[in-house]
Amino acid sequence: MSTPRKRPRIADSAGRAAFFPARVAARAWRGGIESAAEDVVSAPEIARIVDSALAGPLPEEIARSLVRHRVIERVVAELAATGELERLIEQSLGSAQTLELTDRVLASDEMQRVLQSVASSPELRRAVTRQSAGLAEDVVAGVRRSAAGLDERIARPAQRRQPVYAGIATRAAALAVDSLAALSIFVLGSAVVALIASLVGGIRPHWLAGSLLAAEWIVVAGGYFVLFWSAAGQTPGMRLMHLRVVDGSGSAPGLGHSLVRVVGLGFAILLLFTGFLPALVDDRRRALQDFLAGTVVVYDNAPPARDSSG
Q1: Is the overall model pTM greater than 0.85, yes or no?
Q2: pLDDT tens profile 221-231
Q3: Where are the beta strands (DSSP E) in 77-197?
Q4: Which ranges of 40-95 would DSSP assign to H, the alpha helix?
């Protein structure tokens, strides 16, 4: 019974004896590391080591490793998934330091010069012009489509078979634009006349001033329509709506036809616009002024219409 107890003690002693050199070496190595650490704790030595590491290829290798393993993308994705990124951004934007820095930048002379340079640049003016022109074209195109759609809905079957002739809704939109343009010219002319008259004490009596204003309006409005009809076959309003007035030969009406037509237009308006009602039932959608002048109004992109009635 005593033999089994002695064998483990002998084995333990042999094991400790075998590992004794390793334990001695480990204590010696630990002592060396500790002594080495004590030797390099000075700040200049640490700075030299860091400087040597940064001067070598280590930073580039670290950067390439970060890109290769998409470390930054993963960190940002994790922050965004947890909502921490949004919180950090809101905290940064709402901080007093950010607001103060923004105010200082906006109030600086350099920023003012940059803003003035951008505002006065021809590129910005061209961009604004293009945007304004594009917006105006979109608005006009929308009005044109709406008016043409209304013309189509109220057209009679015989009128739908001749889509070359313009309907009353499209013509009304063109007349509204032309009336506004003629009124603007009339107001500007009246202001010039009033300014000149003020130099001699004004126009007396008042009925004379009223008569002159009425005559001026007739001349301005009549001249506006006659000029554009006879010269181009369309007014600016008709051009926006893609309309054109033609005579029996399919060309722009001459001066005589244009004078007759503008008189008919005046009567159609004075009759509480009832002079436009024939356009709702006539196959060629002619109104009172068209019957008097022998003209028709067609869409500008349509082939010239032939009016056999002359």
Answers
A1: no
A2: 999 999 999 99
A3: none
A4: 43-55, 58-68, 71-82, 84-93
